[in-house]
Amino acid sequence: MAAQAESWSWFTALAVGVSLFKCLFINAYHSTDFEVHRNWLAITNSLPLSRWYHENSSEWTLDYPPLFAWLERGLAQAARHWDGDMLRLDNLNYASPATVLFQRLSVVCTDLLFIYAARECCRCIRVQKAPQVILCRPSFVLAVLLLWNFGLLIVDHIHFQYNGFLFGFLLLSVARHLQSRHLQGALLFAVLLNLKHIFLYVAPAYGIFLLRSYCFTLDRPDGSIRWSSFAPLRLLALGGIVISVFALSFGPFVAMGQLSQVVSRLFPFRRGLCHAYWAPNAWALYSGADKALAVLGVRLKLLQEAELPRAAMTGGLVQEIQHAVLPSVPPAATLLCTVLAILPALVSIWRHRRGNRAFLRCLLLCALASFLFGWHVHEKAILLAVLPLSILAVESREDAGIFLVLSTTGHYSLFPLLFTPAEMIIKVCLMLMFTIYSFTALGNLHRSQGSLLRPMEVAYLLGLATVAIACEFIFPLSPWRQKLPFLPLLATSVYCAVGVSYSFLRLYATLLRIDDKRKQL
Question: Which residues form a coiled coil (predicted)?
Fold first, then answer.
């Protein structure tokens, strides 16, 4: 027992180090999300439950599921001992030093769940023989990739959100499934859905995997389902867990007849296809193509510029938009595209019992498909794929190559979140350090199996570096800055969308390759 505790002392050092490092950003720039969460503290503290999802005196209305609202309520009980003025509904944009300190530390403290989840994921790593040198162990590399993830550092501890706490639930749930503790994994995921509904992106992977691998206990010799092995008690246990969590979360609002009001807050389809800054997905490519066709049409005098819709999609506002040349995309079309994109992955894990790693791969494909084709996707949602992919990256050379492309592309796409000059050096240095470590550590782990990246991938990443230099350093000094202020956002979204799409296709290729090997056997 003492030897085992000693062998994990390095993890404690990493966790303490990153927690202290996060405290360095207490006085850094914070986004409007800081005021969003301060207002939610005030709402849940000042108003009765029946008014939480009706309050609209601020534009930052409560639009997370009920369990997160109760988390804010709990934080509000501690906040009153720091600065009670932050809990006043009429105190909009209040950011006293005590308020800033409290909210920053609340993120650091809730990250303790993420730290525990990262440790559990490290315990799930499969290695034939762990190296003697701690720095070269897959578990150590994974711990660094998770705890020191560039995206989480800037999104949570500079921009300001509670993603670490939420991803703690996701990674802990994944770890429990990798450990074949499926009921615990299902419980954690059900709680997570009631904390933030964006994780519905990966719910199909959970549903199909648990139904196939937990509720059906035996297979036929060819690996297909033995229908007679269906265990109804297991299905009842899973259903009881999920229903109980949702009943606890939404039950009070159902009793008050407010379910439709809560749902309207959670799914605001009026916000439009793209976020204020386009997430690097298929709709960024689609909207970019629409703008290119509009410009070409005006140049060729096929279109009249005065008749085209105003350039709202990259104008920094959240609103409904109309494409100028290509057909506008309704929410139903994005849903259809998402379903079609995840269907082969779901069919793959349904037809044959593929093991817990196949579930993780399916989860990643669902996350990326929803990111690429979903409605009003936030750029920060790329972390839903980057973080779980870290687990596969330390076990497989091919997955490590996909991780390097996806993490580098996805992390750079977060750069526009920090646009103040003071944070420029911070985001550049943090990303360089994380990227260099990722390339070096994963390269050493898989050194005997050859290069991690293909020549085309290397060329793409070099092009990404060129785009970054142009957008971050050259464009601000050019005369185009005044005339085309959102050109860097468009270039970043479109170029990064290519990398994310490529990573999605490569992940699918690995899944299909596994299926082909199974058929040959």
Answer: none
Write the CA distances from 138 to 135, 395, 479, integer angstroms.
Answer: 8, 7, 48
Secondary structure class of 79 (helix, strand, coil): helix
Nearest to 500 by CA among 462, 466, 464, 467: 464
In Å, how far from its chain's centre is CA 383?
Answer: 3
Rounded CA separation 228/473 (Å) = 64
The three-state secondary structure class of 326 is coil
- For the chain, the C-alpha Rg in angstroms (whole number) is 24
**Rounded mean pLDDT, 121-147:** 85
- Predicted local distance difference test score (pLDDT) of residue 323: 77
C-alpha span between 375 and 333 (Å, rounded): 9
Nearest to 102 by CA among 119, 85, 118: 85
**Alpha carbon separation from 489 to 285, 356, 379 (Å, rounded):** 13, 38, 12
The whole-angstrom separation of Cα 380 and Cα 377 is 8
Distance in angstroms (rounded) separating the CA atoms of residues 372 and 329: 14
pLDDT tens by residue, 7-61: 788 999 999 999 999 999 999 999 999 999 999 999 999 999 999 999 988 889 9
Statement: residue 317 has pLDDT above 60 = no
Measured CA to CA, the distance from residue 361 to residue 511 in angstroms comes to 8
Residues 248, 245: Cα–Cα separation, whole Å: 5
Mean pLDDT of the region 145-160: 96
Half-sphere exposure of 21 (CA within 13 A, CB side): 17
Asked whether the CA dihedral 388, 174, 202, 252 is positive or negative, the reply is: negative
Q: What is the mean pLDDT of the chain?
A: 89
Euclidean distance between CA atoms 287 and 295, whole angstroms: 12
Read off the amino acid at residue 77: Q
pLDDT over threshold 90, residue 294 = no
User: What HEC string does 258-311 produce?
Assistant: CHHHHHHHHCCHHHCCECCCCCCCHHHHHHHHHHHHHHHHHHCCCCCHHHCCCC
Beta bridge partners of 377: 274
**Other CB atoms within 10 A of residue 46 CB:** 14
What contacts 405, CB < 8 A, 6 or more positions away? 453, 457, 460, 461, 499, 502, 503, 506
Dmax (CA) of the chain: 78
361's enclosing H/E stretch is: helix 356-373
Beta-carbon contacts of 142 under 8 Å, excluding residues fewer than 6 positions away, are 118, 121, 122, 125, 390, 391, 393, 394
- Model confidence at 263, in pLDDT bands (50, 70, 90)? very high
Specify the 3-state DSSP secondary structure of 140. Answer: helix
